[in-house]
Specification:
Elements (H helix, E strand, L loop, with lengths): L5 H15 L3 E5 L2 H12 L3 E7 L6 E6 L12 E3 L8 E2 L13 E6 L2 E4 H7 L3 E7 L1
Length: 132
């Protein structure tokens, strides 16, 4: 069965695993997913991720991050641009999310970046997800 929105599937897997307190979660891999996970890692929302070679299909394992008393680092994870309704933004319209506490994952002509990196590079694009 083909999946309509693989990135939404990845975000849902992370959200569900985060809610039940799992330390890691597996997901089918793709270049877009790896790029989005790289942004989450750089911004400090996940500990790490790695590609698994011992399984028949390309898979990525995501290691979730929790606070000292097992409080969640990811409190909100939402897909913004969907296959039926793409959301694009210019760099001048890209204001900090929650005064810099949150992050938007943006697909740009220069690759997948956080909104902070987009403002530094002066480039806009499609807003894939919001995390805080």
């Amino acid at each position: 069965m083909s999946m309509t929105d693989p990135l939404a599937d990845l975000l849902t897997r992370i959200r569900n695993a985060n809610r039940i307190g799992r330390m890691s979660v597996d997901s089918p891999a793709s270049n877009l997913k790896r790029a989005a996970l790289d942004v989450l890692k750089r911004e400090g929302f996940i500990r790490d991720f790695k590609s698994l070679d011992d399984v028949p299909h390309p898979t990525v394992r995501i290691y979730l991050k929790y606070g000292r008393d097992r409080e969640r680092v990811i409190r909100h994870l939402q897909r913004v641009s969907k296959p039926g309704c793409r959301i694009y933004t210019k760099v001048k319209d890209m204001l900090p999310l929650l005064n810099g506490q949150g992050v938007r994952i943006v697909s740009t002509p220069r690759g997948v970046m956080s909104d902070r990196e987009c403002r530094q590079a002066n480039v806009g694009g499609e807003v894939l997800a919001e995390v805080w």
